[in-house]
Each structure stands twice: as structure tokens, then as C-alpha cells.
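note to self: the first set is below, dont mix up w the second
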Amino acid sequence: MTVIADKDPAADFAPRTVQLPGYPVWSGPFTHLAAERDRLAGLRWQSFDARPVGATLGAEISGVDLAREQPDAVIAEVRRALHEYKVLFFRDQPLTPQQQVAFARRFGELEVHPFIPSNTSCPELVRFEKSAQVSGFENAWHHDVTWRKQPSMGAVLHAISVPAIGGDTLFADMYAAYDVLDAETRARIETLDAVHDFTRAFGHALNDEQREKMRAEHPAVRHPVVCTHAVTGRKHLYVNRVFADHIHGLDLDESRALIDRLCRTADAPEHQVRLHWEPHTVAFWDNRAVQHYAASDYWPQVRIMERASIIGPRPSR
């Protein structure tokens, strides 16, 4: 056997990603994450403790009881932490529906979802109750309700009943997803709009009369493919396969290929953080800065969650 190795084959490469020959797959250090990872590690807070759990997103927050009405200063710090970490995790928060709504409302007006019933005393809470008879179809990367003219800026999700194994939710950093793109791709997509349509996810459940009525209330909308976050001023990708139907001005095949390519940036584990739910865990995510994916690996067990969504401004460049 001939051995020619006298050093690590990666020693001749500068720290960067390289494309695997013949495939649209890249390998190597995600160097664009380093500055944000180090910046987040240095943050300190007055009202709570925060433990980062992902490279550039996700922090477990302790020292705050969400069931109690918090002072404005605490809410302001939670808001700032949301924008810094993109998604916050709170453990052991046995909230009533009213308490969950009251907490979420501190951050803005709440939406009422027209296609998913609340099934509680609070219409602002969407209830996801999955079982052997009701399947979970949330296992595709997406921002919530991008088919609205003013999609939600954030969401507060409370775990009521969860399986011991499975049913995790993954979050992907869409700032990092934009940052990893090459200059040519960024230039190409900078002025493009995607058309978002509720019928892609919810149209199959409606008859013709219902579809016509809901279409009048919720026409298809155009949002930039690349948005500038209204608070942080950072650019992020804003397309998903669930609601984005096509790119305005491109034919369908070219649109779908481009959307799919951009959405694949969320697939990199380096851009992700994963939450294993426990009863009364609460996740609060920035619906612009992250996409999420609810793993559907727990059937036929029961998984019950309730979500309050906060209306945001219209996405813009």
C-alpha cells in the first residue's frame, strides 16, 4: 500500500468553503459566522441570564417569569435580546392562554389566523393539536404567514403536551443565509420580488366559494426576496417554499429553481439551532430573521402547541 500523506490535506486551503466536484454542495468552515458568534458570546443583560445555544442564533433565557406582568424595562430587554439572538427559549413557563396572550401583546398587536382555529378561549392563539388522526405538516422551512401584506414580526409558541422523543423545532438564521451567498447571486436577487399566496398551503381545504371569499380578503402579495430588517437594518433572505409561489417577472421554472436554491441555505446545520421541547417550554422567535421547521417524527403520539403571532410592518428593501 502506497501512502503519500504527510500532512492534513486541508492544510493547503485557506479557511473557506469549497464546492464538492460535480455537486451543488459546499464543505469547509463557515467563516462568515465567526464575528456574529463572538459578538453574541459577549452580550450581558440586566434583567435575566442568557445562554447562547447556537452559533449565531438561539439563547436560553432564565430569570424571567412570563406569567407575571413584567416592567417595561424588562420587556424592552427581552425585545432587544430577541433581535440579537433571533430566537429565545424559556423553560418551565406554565402559562394560561390569557397569560400567553398578555405577554405576546407587550410586543405589538396580535393577529387572528383565518385558516387555523384557536380552539381556546383566546382567538389570538392558534392551536396545533397533532395526534394519530391529525397529521403535522409543518416540517418544511418557512417564515409564518408571508402571504399577508403585513406578516408577523414574531411569534410566541407554548408547549402544552409534547412527546418524550421527537417533535423538535429547528430554526435557521436568514441573515447568515444571505451572508453566505456569492456576490453574483446577491446582485441578481437584490431587486427581485417573490409572490406569496395562501392557497399553496391552505387552498386544498377550501371549496370554490370559500376560496373566492378568502382570495378577496387575502390577495397574493409581493415581498422582496432580500429584505432589510426594520429594527436591526441587516439584510436577510425572505423566501420559502411553503408560501412563495414564484418570482415576479420570471417564468415558473426559473422562479422555482431560484427559490429552491435560496431556500437550501437554511439546510446547513451551521445556520441552525434545534429546540427539544419540554412541557411548558416557550419559544419566542423573530419571524423575519429566522425560518423554522417542526420535525414530524413523533406520529402517532400527541403534540399540542399554542402560538400567538405579533403583526409586523410590511417587509421592505
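second set (the one i keep forgetting abt)
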Amino acid sequence: MHDENVSTFLSFLEAEDAALSFLQKSYQYLGIPDAEARSYQNISAFLAYLEHGKSYYSHGKNAPLLMKPVLLFYGMTHFMKASLLLTRPAYPESTADLSHGLSTRKRKKRDYQFSLDEVLLQQRGLFPYFSRHVCKREFHSIKKVSMGDMFGLIPELYDLLTLQEGKRNLTEARLEKDALILPDCLLDEFQYTKRRFLEFLKSFSFKVTGQEQLTMQQPDSLWQAAGPLYSNPVKGQYYFVRQSCWSSFHECMAHYALLYNLSMICRYEAEWWTDLLHVNRHNEYPLIVRFLEITAEKFPLLIGSYMLKHFQDIKKAR
């Protein structure tokens, strides 16, 4: 997995003719009627989403914590919309698709703790639409998620959560050469037989290379290691979800849920947010600050990796 390849590809798409060709070939690859006309219709929006996304992230990285969540969230939504236009030329298909797709409490209690807070998953809006069409995930059995669970799905937070004895939904996989060795405890935690677990791995297109000891081939892109296998590309570490219920969550979905809630708090719960930043720096403070650092760098790379993989799949099919 090479981050510089993703960054180069995003720069490549800044040229209108390259982006237009990509859209047209994507629609043709998917068998969408009137591919050429629809690519011309969408090219301005596609380029605008990418430009706005990059700009918001650039300013968000350097912004004070006081406003950082809002800028990063706007950047995130623009990148998500750009990725959707690659395969959904009619997006948004209705006004309902323009909503956030999540909801949270309007007022926080006096003893409010961010990690215990929950967001409700809606059936319409950007979150479910993106989850379904980009991440290829459905979450019919999950109605709400806690922020603590979402922290537990960010691999770069694994060490910090370990120190704080926080909730971890991942377990570390061992990398030897180009092979990933999964811990045997996964069978007990999933309550799967080995045969069923192997079928589970294959359903996500993972290449199983050993069955006696659960071994799989190392993914060749960041996008392929964003759930249920997760990666920390900076440290070259891999993790696997500990429970089958979280296999329906892609890492992008966890980033979105956390940043959505933080941006809402930043905007509408000024007293609690200011208190966290300047007065009462409890255990959640380092988690929130670290997450904002992580998502500012990683989410654009995840979206770029998705686009690059789609670009490569189109070339292979020609």
C-alpha cells in the first residue's frame, strides 16, 4: 500500500480532461446508458467536490481545535459525494439523499460523556447511501452506534485505547513477509467454525493462503484493508474485527459517525466543547484530538484509494 500513489492519482484528477475520461469510462464499465452525455453533465460537480474536499481538509488540518471538526466534516462530505458520482451518475436521486443520514440528541446531559453518546442510523441520507454504494455495506441489524465503539474501529487508536483500557473492537494480526496470520481467538469471538470463518473471509474477497493456521494474503491497497480487516499504514500494522456484527462497518463509516457527532457538538454544544478543550481534559480529550489528527490525513487517502482501485479495475477489464 503506497500513500504516494493515491496522492498522485488525486493530483492526476485535477485535470478536467483526465477526470472527464475517468467518469465516462466508469459509466461505460458499469453499463450505464448515455455514458458520454452523463459524464459531461457530472464533470463540473465532480471536480468541484474534489476541490472543495481538498480545500476544507487543507484548512482543517491547520485550524484551531475549536473549529477543526466542522471544516474536516465538510471536507469529508465533499469527498464522499465525489466518490458517489463515479458510480451513481444520478446522485442525489432525491432530496432525502441530501440529509446527513445520522441523528443525535439535541441537548447533552450535564454528565455527558462523548464515548457513551450514540448516533441513530437513518434509512435515507448521505451515510446509508455512501455505505451502500461505495462501501458495499448494509446495516439492517444495527440501529444506533456509540462513539466508544466507533473509536474502537480506528486502528490508529488501538494503542491509546489499550493504555486507557478503553473499548477495542479490533485484535492485532501478525504480518510475516506478505502474509497475515490471524489470531485463533477470532473463531471463539465470532462463534464460527473454521469452515464458516473461511467462507466469511472469502466473501470479502480476501485471499486465504493457509487454513491450518488462519493466514491470508496482505492486501495491496488501503481500501481493501478498511474493514473487516483494518490497517495502520504508518506503522504497517493490521487488525481484524473481534465481533461479526462490526463486519458490516467500513472504516469510512466509523470516521463519518465520529466526525458528524463532533461537528454537531462543535457547532451546537459550545459550552461542553469549550470546557473539554480548555478546562476539563478528561480521558476523552486525547482520543478526540488524536482522532482528528488521524482522520485529517487518512480519510482523503481512503477515498483516493477507492478511486484508484476503481480506475485500475476499469483498465484491467479493457
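remember for set 2: The mean pLDDT is 92.
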